[in-house]
Automatic annotation (TrEMBL):
<keyword id="KW-0547">Nucleotide-binding</keyword>
<dbReference type="GO" id="GO:0005524">
    <property type="term" value="F:ATP binding"/>
</dbReference>
<protein>
    <submittedName>
        <fullName>ABC transporter ATP-binding protein</fullName>
    </submittedName>
</protein>
<comment type="similarity">
    <text>Belongs to the ABC transporter superfamily.</text>
</comment>
<keyword id="KW-0813">Transport</keyword>
<feature type="domain" description="ABC transporter">
    <location>
        <begin position="5"/>
        <end position="255"/>
    </location>
</feature>
<keyword id="KW-0067">ATP-binding</keyword>
C-alpha cells in the first residue's frame, strides 16, 4: 500500500538541567493517503513530541537521536528549518494544542488567515481576503466578514480553534496533524469541531493524525488507533481491534479506564440544606464595539444580555451554552 508518512525507530531526547531525558524511544508508525489515524496515550507519553518532530517543530532543547521520517517518499529526518518551513502548511498542516497561545494577540484574525494563505500562493490581498472569508465559513464560523476584523481575544475558545483549523487547511495539505484540538472546549463544541474536521478532511481527501487523550473520541473518529506509552507506539489497530482485544498491557488499562466506554463512576452530590447566597447577579449586560470602518456605522455585538443567577456557598454552578453564547464574558462580569 502507498504510504504518505512512514516513521521508523524514531528516538529523541530533551536536554534538561538534570541531563538528557529520552522522550521518543523507537517510535514506529505509518499513515496512508486520506487515512484517519488517532494517536492516544496518557499525558507525557510523547504524543506532542512525536507530532512536532514530524514537522520540524521540536523545541530548542530537543534533538532526534535516531530513526527516520519519510514523507511522500522523501527522507525528511535531517531537513533544515528552511526546508521544514516550506513543508509546514503547504504539505502538512498543524492544528496546535492550545488556541490561546497559537494566535498572535495583536493581529486581526483576517491578517493571520490571509498570511497563511499568502505563504503558499502568490495572490493579491483582495483575493486572499476573499479566500480567508471562505475558509472561516468552511470552518463553521458565523459572520466571517465581521470576524476577519476582530482580534483573537474577541472570539470564544471554540471560534479560536476553528480559526486555527482554517489556518491549517489554508495551504491544502495532504496531512493534517491535530494535537488535542479540543481539549479546552466543552463536549458539544468539541463534537461539532471534530465533525467539521471530518467533513473538511473527507471533502479534500486529507489524511489526519488526531492526537487525543480520549479513547472514545479516537474510536469514534479514526480508521485506525495508535496507542503510545513511554515514547513508543505499543499498539496499532482498528477501533474494534484495540477496544475488544487489546494486545498490550498498557492498552488494556486504558480501555478499562476510558470514560464513556465504561459506567460513569460518579453520582450527583446531594443539595445542601439551607444554602447561603454568595453571589447574586441580576440583569448582567455587556456589549462590545468593533473598531469603526470608514463610511460604515460602528457595529456592536451584544455578548451578554440580561443574565441573572445566584450561587450559594459550596455550590457548583455549571454554565452551559454553545460556543460564543457568552459564558466567558458572563463569568468575567460576575
Ligand atoms: P500531553 O497529553 O500532556 O500533551 P504528551 O503525550 O503530548 O502529553 P509530550 O509533551 O510529548 O507528551 O512529553 C513527552 C515527555 O517529554 C514528557 O516526559 C515531558 O515531560 C517531556 N518534555 C516535553 N517537552 C519538554 C521540554 N520542552 N523540555 C523537557 N522535557 C520535555
Ligand atoms: Mg501533548
Amino acid at each position: 500500500s502507498r504510504r504518505l508518512l512512514e516513521v521508523r525507530g524514531l528516538c529523541s531526547e530533551y536536554l534538561t538541567a538534570v541531563g538528557a531525558v529520552p522522550a521518543l524511544r523507537s517510535a514506529d508508525l505509518h499513515i496512508g493517503p486520506g487515512e484517519k489515524v488517532a494517536l492516544v496515550g496518557e499525558s507525557g507519553s510523547g504524543k506532542s513530541t512525536l507530532s512536532h518532530a514530524l514537522i520540524g517543530l521540536l523545541p530548542e532543547n530537543a534533538r532526534l537521536t535516531g530513526g527516520t521520517i519519510r514523507y511522500g517518499g522523501e527522507d525528511i529526518t535531517r531537513w533544515s528549518d528552511h526546508q521544514f518551513r516550506s513543508l509546514r502548511g503547504a504539505r502538512i498542516g498543524l492544528i496546535p494544542q492550545d488556541p490561546t497561545v497559537s494566535l498572535n494577540p495583536v493581529r486581526t484574525i483576517g491578517h493571520q488567515v490571509m498570511e497563511a494563505i499568502r505563504a503558499h500562493r502568490r495572490i493579491s490581498k483582495a483575493a486572499a481576503r476573499q479566500q480567508a472569508q471562505q475558509l472561516l465559513d468552511q470552518a463553521g464560523i458565523d459572520r466571517p466578514a465581521v470576524r476577519l476584523r476582530q482580534y483573537p481575544h474577541q472570539l470564544s475558545g471554540g471560534m479560536r480553534q476553528r480559526v486555527l483549523i482554517a489556518i491549517a487547511i489554508a495551504g491544502d495539505p495532504d496531512l493534517l496533524i491535530a494535537d488535542e484540538p479540543t481539549s479546552a472546549l466543552d463536549a458539544t463544541v468539541q463534537r461539532r469541531i471534530l465533525d467539521h474536521l471530518d467533513d473538511l478532511a473527507a471533502a479534500r481527501g486529507t489524511a489526519v493524525l488526531l492526537v487525543t487523550h480520549d479513547l472514545g473520541v479516537a474510536a469514534d473518529r479514526a480508521d485506525r488507533i495508535l496507542v503510545m506509552s513511554r515514547g513508543q507506539i505499543v499498539e496499532s489497530g482498528t477501533a474494534a481491534e484495540v477496544l475488544t482485544s487489546p494486545q498490550d498491557a498498557y492498552t488494556r488499562r486504558l480501555v478499562a479506564n476510558a470514560p464513556g466506554l465504561t459506567e460513569p463512576a460518579w453520582a450527583p452530590a446531594p443539595l445542601p440544606e439551607e444554602p447561603e447566597v454568595l453571589l447574586r447577579a441580576e440583569g448582567l449586560c455587556r456589549s462590545f464595539t468593533l473598531p469603526a470602518r470608514r463610511g460604515e456605522p460602528r457595529q456592536s455585538i451584544r455578548a451578554v444580555d440580561g443574565v441573572s443567577f445566584s450561587l450559594a456557598r459550596g455550590e457548583t454552578l455549571a454554565l452551559v451554552g454553545e460556543s460564543g453564547s457568552g459564558k466567558s464574558t458572563t463569568a468575567k462580569l460576575a
